């Protein structure tokens, strides 16, 4: 697979995790949802830098 396809799949996976966590756990908690979403994006960014950027 090309790098662009892997990148698109990675972003779609990140969006799916964020939406899933929002709907399941933080529907009525704005600040908690915001903090968890930022944390998820940071974790996905760290994994991207560690595993995909170097290859």
Could you characterize what this model shows?
With 55 residues, the protein is mainly alpha-helical. It has one domain (3-52). Helix content is 84%, strand content 0%. It is elongated.
Key phrases:
elongated; 2 helices; 84% helix; mainly alpha; 55 residues; 0% strand
Our Rg estimate from Cα atoms comes to 13 Å
Number of strands: 0
Number of domains: 1
What is the overall shape? Answer: elongated
> Which class best fits the helix and strand makeup?
mainly alpha
Give the percentage of residues in beta strands.
Answer: under 5%
Can you give the mean pLDDT?
A: 89
Percent helix: over 70%
Q: Give, in order, the helices and strands.
A: HH
Spans of at least 5 consecutive residues whose pLDDT stays below 50 are none
Distance between the termini: 13 Å
The tally of helices reads: 2
Main sheet summary = none
Topology at a glance:
Elements: H1 3-25, H2 30-52
Helix pairs in contact: 1-2
Short summary of the structure?
With 55 residues, the chain is mainly alpha-helical. Helix content is 84%, strand content 0%. The chain has helices spanning 3-25, 30-52.
């Amino acid at each position: 697979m090309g790098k662009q396809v892997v990148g698109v799949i990675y972003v779609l996976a990140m969006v799916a995790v964020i939406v899933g966590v929002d709907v399941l756990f933080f529907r009525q908690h704005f600040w908690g949802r915001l903090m968890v979403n930022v944390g998820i994006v940071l974790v996905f960014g760290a994994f991207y830098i560690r595993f995909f950027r170097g290859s």
